[in-house]
Amino acid sequence: MKYVYIVLIESYTGLGKILKKFTGYRYEHIAVSMDKSLTEFVSYSRKQHHHPFKAGFMREYRDYYAFEEYQKFYAKIFALPVTEEQYREIEQFISECENDSEQIFNLFAMLTTPILHGLRIYKAHNCMDFTAKVIEMAGVKLEKPFYKYDIPGIEKLLEGYPVKEGYVKRIDSADYEKYTEPSDILTMAKEFLHTVGILTGRLIFDRDKKDIF
Known about the structure:
8 helices; two-stranded antiparallel ribbon; globular; 213 residues; alpha+beta; 39% helix; endopeptidase fold (from Nostoc punctiforme)
């Protein structure tokens, strides 16, 4: 029997701290790991720490969560048992997401989740709908469409699969310096407008196109 690990992560970013104050909920990010060592994770998120609007499919590492002065991060980990076939199918799905250059981060869905509870846009995803899709592929029956899940909803869905809750120690990765390169307001503004432009175009013109999900 193999396992796929779903990891709820406490974010120490400025946005994460603001959200925590408003919601009182500890976890602001969620990712998938295919290995019990939890050294590598896959998700949809920012590609660099200081570039919040430059985002899409990502391979992440522990020091992406425990960055700069942080030496650990708080997480809740679930282990989903899967068959060999399910494991291979999830690996193939991850590979397709990673190798599709059109995949981007669904900023609109993140901003409107409390109101719309899910907004599908062609080849645009976030950490929540990506993880929910993996959970569905692992054989867990979803109570609603995968793109309508937020992190608290996923936590509730996986109540029967907990492994650990607590701090996870930082491990330095080879890409950490690139991930933490500084940015500036002008660059962030350009990235934001670029992302909004792409998402708006796809929302209007690409509604009927077939996605990987």
